[in-house]
Design a protein that fits this description.
The structure holds two protein chains of two kinds.
Chain A: E1 9-12, E2 18-23, E3 33-37, E4 44-47, E5 61-66, E6 69-74, E7 83-91, E8 98-101, E9 105-109
Parallel strand pairs in A: 1-9
Antiparallel strand pairs in A: 2-6, 3-4, 3-7, 5-6, 7-8, 7-9
Chain B: E1 3-6, E2 10-12, E3 18-25, E4 34-39, E5 45-52, E6 57-60, E7 69-73, E8 78-83, E9 92-99, E10 109-112, E11 116-120
Parallel strand pairs in B: 2-11
Antiparallel strand pairs in B: 1-3, 3-8, 4-5, 4-9, 5-6, 7-8, 9-10, 9-11
Classes of the chains: A mainly beta, B mainly beta.
Chain lengths: 110, 122
């Protein structure tokens, strides 16, 4: 089955740029969706189809996907960005559809 | 406004059965896939499966096939996740989520329920 890998944690100072990566074999050929989950809350979609932002998500959030790595970039990081971030891809290489999540990356704003 | 409202927290014993629900409003219920996601305590998100309320088609994650049953009742705009014999390892928060893009299963989940906490303990 398809495996998606994320670093467990990333730290960044306020005002700087945080980059959260999602690795997978030829992930650039798949569409990647990103979710933000703050403590005690349900996930929220922040990037869809690699780089599109849903309405209401700040322009500071952007995404890219190429080769074996997809990246969520958060510019001018704020304290309110502190959360767990999950990437998701859809895979059917096993003959069965599977919505694969990465293990999640905790963003700490220090 | 799209809303997904889930049933409340449950405390059950091992071996008991359970069905949790997700009631949808604010959109055409029969035109969007709706799925379930598990989050065990302190852990990440795990995709369980999705159902298309329009015709009842269900797709399960290989990890959850045979472990749970996903269904939907379009007459009351409600999706369900059920177990016949719970285990302690089923203790988790369960989220329902709508797939965007109408009849497309493989899109992003654009709206999420608030979560249903299931605790299984003897």
């Amino acid at each position: 089955s398809y495996v998606v890998t994320q670093l467990p944690s990333v730290s960044e100072a306020p005002g700087k740029t945080a980059r959260i990566t999602c690795g997978g074999s030829n992930i650039g050929s798949k569409s990647v969706h990103w979710y933000q989950q703050k403590s005690g809350q349900a996930p929220v979609l922040v990037i869809l189809y690699d780089s599109d932002r849903p309405s209401g998500i700040p322009e500071r959030y952007s995404g890219s996907n190429s080769g074996n790595t997809a990246t969520l970039t958060i510019s001018r990081v704020e304290a309110g960005d502190e959360a767990d971030y999950y990437c998701q891809v859809w895979d059917s290489s096993s003959g069965r559809l599977n919505g694969v999540f990465g293990g999640g990356t905790k963003l700490t704003v220090v | 406004e799209v809303l997904l409202v889930q049933s409340g927290a449950e405390v059950k014993k091992p071996g008991e059965s359970l069905r949790i629900s997700c009631q949808a409003s604010g959109y055409s219920f029969t035109s969007h896939w709706i799925g379930w996601v598990r989050q065990m305590p302190g852990k990440g998100l795990e995709w369980m499966g999705i159902v298309y309320p329009g015709d009842g088609e269900v797709k399960y994650s290989p990890s959850f096939q045979g472990q749970v049953t996903i269904s939907a009742d379009k007459s009351i705009r409600t999706a369900y996740l059920q177990w016949t014999a719970l285990k302690a390892s089923d203790t988790a928060m369960y989220y329902c989520a709508r797939q965007s893009g109408g009849g497309t299963a493989t899109g992003p989940s654009d709206y999420w329920g608030q979560g249903s906490l299931v605790t299984v303990s003897s």
